[in-house]
Write a structure and sequence with these properties.
mainly alpha; single chain; 0% strand; Growth Hormone, Chain: A; 2 domains; 16 helices
């Protein structure tokens, strides 16, 4: 990959991801216009449907419009959703449809950006570039809410923050458009999915890590989407979670990716998920202060952040290598199912039973994922 292509891909990755990170301020924006967490859950529920639908079709879209063009369109969809939310004056039920722009914009970007980068990299460099992109995505996701908080401190309303997010999304779309001409000149294999291919993928050893990442995505989705009310209930500032989280995950992924990749995958996942569950239990059981909350966030970010990479590696290395490309699309689709679907239910939990009950539910989900890692480890040792 030449330097110009890498710079453009890095640029639109950070811009798009930073804007998306500002969706974690959605509870604050909805509160401004008279809605509650249940309304947020409805928006995220539409986002889930949109992410799964457009994620499923993203391969078909890429085959027809090109990968760079599809990523640019995703930036436009995300910008439109932010603009609608920024301009809203009340919690009109039609605002729920903005979730389509958030879900579709993120799904197409998230699935196709790695494929766009891989098509421009030599085989020996693919893991390196995928790691860089993963780190930049997480950097943007964590930077978004922190930037939003800084802008609030500077006197900008949450509505104004969402307008800036729309602008960042458009910048990302513009940078992706620069790559359209060269992208169309590159020969790509088909990225399309269908039910027959899905069935074949789910009959491989990719099935277990795919289920696990759906659960992990649900935990992460609830913690980020409802971090504002969770932090308020605990008595800390929500920006603290995102600042600590992003520094830990980016550092861990970029610094330890090579080392983690050489370890036994299910044993590593079991150990990392033990750390994640311990962090979730800490939020439920221990008295919280900014210091304790920061330390717990480091544990959660380390356990959750590296588990994603480990599970993704299991999927990429399934024995049926002809199914590896579609499996690597099914994997993030399962992640989206958890990322958007669980907050849909989480909105109801937090609106009816409070933040403490939501944290308890997340502990239970963490234990389920931990048990599945144990199942994978046992199966591996029996072979």
């Amino acid at each position: 990959m030449n330097r110009n292509d890498l710079t453009l891909i890095a640029g639109f990755t950070v811009a798009h991801s930073t804007a998306y990170g500002m969706t974690f301020l959605l509870p604050l924006r909805v509160s401004e216009i008279g809605g509650d967490e249940g309304f947020v859950g409805l928006i995220l529920g539409v986002g889930m449907v949109a992410a799964l639908l457009t994620g499923w079709l993203s391969g078909h879209l890429a085959d027809r419009a090109g990968r760079a063009g599809s990523v640019a369109a995703a930036g436009g969809a995300q910008a439109a959703a932010f603009a609608v939310m920024a301009a809203a004056s009340d919690a009109d039920p039609m605002l729920i449809l903005s979730g389509f722009g958030f879900g579709a914009g993120w799904a197409v970007f998230y699935l196709l950006t790695p494929l766009l980068a891989i098509s421009r990299a030599q085989a020996k460099d693919r893991v390196k570039y995928l790691t860089i992109i993963s780190g930049l995505m997480m950097l943007g996701i964590g930077l978004g809410p922190v930037l939003g908080r800084v802008l609030e401190w500077a006197g900008l309303s949450v509505s104004g923050v969402f307008a800036i997010a729309a602008g960042l999304s458009l910048i990302g779309a513009g940078l992706a458009l620069v790559l359209v001409r060269s992208d169309l000149s590159i020969s790509h294999g088909s990225a399309s999915l269908n039910l027959a291919v899905l069935g074949r993928v789910l009959r491989t050893r990719a099935a277990l890590p795919t289920v696990m990442i759906a659960i992990g995505g649900g935990i992460f989705g609830c913690l980020t989407s409802y971090q504002a009310p969770i932090s308020e209930a605990i008595g800390v500032d929500y920006a603290l979670f995102f600042a600590v989280f992003v520094v830990t995950v980016v550092g861990a992924r970029l610094g330890l990716a090579g080392h983690i990749g050489r370890q036994p995958p299910y044993a590593t996942a079991f150990a990392l998920l033990s750390i994640m569950v311990a962090a979730l239990l800490s939020w439920v059981r221990l008295p919280q202060s900014p210091l304790v909350y920061s330390a717990t966030t480091v544990l959660f970010a380390f356990g959750y952040g590296l588990t994603y990479s480990v599970l993704n590696g299991i999927v990429a290395n399934i024995e049926q290598q002809d199914l590896a490309p579609p499996a690597l699309l099914v994997f993030p689709l399962a992640y989206f199912l958890g990322l958007y679907g669980t907050p849909f239910l989480g909105g109801w939990v937090i609106a009816t039973h409070g933040a403490e009950m939501l944290l308890f539910v997340l502990v239970m989900l963490g234990l389920v994922e931990w048990c599945l890692a144990a199942v994978g480890l046992i199966r591996k040792r029996k072979r």
